[in-house]
Amino acid sequence: MQHKPHKFGYSPCWGRVFYTLVTLGAKFFVVGLFTKAIEPVVFTSVAHYYALGQILRSRLLLDLARLLRKEMRVLGIETSCDETGVAIYDSDTGLLADALYSQVEVHADYGGVVPELASRDHVRKLLPMIRQILADTALQAGDIDGIAYTAGPGLIGALMVGGSVARSLGYAWGVPTLGVHHMEGHLLAPMLEDNPPQYPFIALLVSGGHTQLVSVKAIGEYEILGESLDDAAGEAFDKAAKMLDMDYPGGPRIAKLAEKGEAGRFRFPRPMCDRPGLDFSFSGLKTFTLNTVAKERGASVLPDEQTQADIAWAFQDAVVDTLMIKCRRAIKETGLKTLVIAGGVSANICLRERLEKALAKLDAKVFYARNAFCTDNGAMIAYAGCQRLMAGQHDDLTIRAVPRWPLDTLPPLQSNQSALASAIEE
Ligand SMILES: Nc1ncnc2c1ncn2[C@@H]1O[C@H](COP(=O)(O)OP(=O)(O)OP(=O)(O)O)[C@@H](O)[C@H]1O
Ligand SMILES: [Mg+2]
Q: Which of 80, 83, 183, 207 to mutate to test the pocket of ligand 1 (most atoms within 8 A of CB)?
């Protein structure tokens, strides 16, 4: 069943306004009958005060104001991998609540995310977390105007959990539901901050599964300028950390260890920087790290602590330098003056500082989200979904997940087709 998008953006509140008007009318009529039997003057004043009291007590004025101002309050659900994230975003007042649960301990013994365990844990955690943020914000189901969930890319089972819950709640609550692209969520996360970037801009998406440079004209108007031909930057951090016997996620651990590292003891390669273009490759760097660790450890299991820190420093320096060189190139080539960095690796302090310094020389500025919104979270999905829901996009009742989904196939905001609908059509 395909809902027709409302020309002002679909909003379920009209049903509630209608219901409130009908019930108020009925109450008014009953009170009128009762008081009229006593005395006409008493009837008029009592009935008027009663009606006024009822209107003030009901949500009628609030709903009408929100409808006329085309506001929406959206529940966001993120379950693409090993984090369960939920949030409520209000287009008028901003982020109302968000909660995150990480499955890192569930997968710790296996050395990577086990898809089946991930799906089961999302099933266990998702509904209680939704109940919890509704309770924390003192909101009820009727206060939610739309639901956005991550429809891909990601692990199919994990995505299906979020999709099933979102679609079912949407159906039960009578509100529109929309599948959101996970990387669009990451890309828009800095919009949740106090001083958000202005369009157009260049986005560097650096996460566990992606490394992409994207030209962003507006929401849904994306052109991929370059991307990793093999490992993602976050994946390279995780693998390097594993070589030094550190747990997942490796990025923050390498960054911490690198603080004690000595600059210049090792020099790691800057892959693909000596040739034109904006693509990346991190698998060679991974092999270089493996060889360095093997050479330095000698007969023991690991190199000594200082050597480990020096390796971490050199590895981080190489990744950050490579990303910085390509970002600088993208800024020069496009003439754009704004760079947005998003995804887990954008939490890296060294990357932020190096980019800020390099781009200041080009008169360009760097924007990023607070650390909690660099990695997976529900807030970015609620925000991205809210923008598209307000533009009138929403999906039909089918529960769908898209494990592989190129970012540049997403429709613009003005499209009368949702992102998920266009992905299915491809
Ligand atoms: N401070 C940091 N420095 C470097 N890397 C970091 C830092 N913090 C997190 N990371 C890395 O970010 C990655 C997780 O980010 P994110 O949650 O965005 O990725 P993902 O959701 O697994 O992948 P994708 O979004 O591509 O599907 C991990 O690889 C982690 O090591
Ligand atoms: Mg992610």
A: 207
